[in-house]
Please model this.
Amino acid sequence: GNSVTQMEGPVTLSEEAFLTINCTYTATGYPSLFWYVQYPGEGLQLLLKATKADDKGSNKGFEATYRKETTSFHLEKGSVQVSDSAVYFCALLTGGFKTIFGAGTRLFVKA
Amino acid sequence: DTAVSQTPKYLVTQMGNDKSIKCEQNLGHDTMYWYKQDSKKFLKIMFSYNNKELIINETVPNRFSPKSPDKAHLNLHINSLELGDSAVYFCASSQASVSYEQYFGPGTRLTVT
Model:
């Protein structure tokens, strides 16, 4: 079946450090891939998305590239800020309405 | 204007009670969802409605019953509440023709004592 695996957290970084959160997926067909972010006490919000192989999604300095050959969609940011502290969810959608979410990765950024 | 709103934000109740959570979206979307998020942040889909028709009905106890009076509203009624129902419940909406990206409400934190 379809599934998403993302690196376990928490990830703790100092401000201005480079961030990578790994995400790999298993899916039939050609899924759309998403990263959602959940700030403390809030609902999830879409951070970026990619709908086909080799697409790069980007937003707020975050990037992720849809790699079909490695079935991956790793999230990266060159210089994190304290305000980036949140839980990040990788997700996929392959046909239909059911989005499959990963388990979430909590990021702490220290000043 | 809040895109997806839920009421109440907090709900504290005793075991055995019946409670409802309401959700409304003003985005004009045709699909709405209920999710349950546990204390470890794991997100589980419960139900989804598309144009008022139930299209996703995951394995949840039949004490949980969704109801969609129109495309903009999706309510969740829970009978005979149990301790294990304590969680944060999120409503979300999407438009099927726009890559299904979902818009989430702020969540309802349910605590059963």
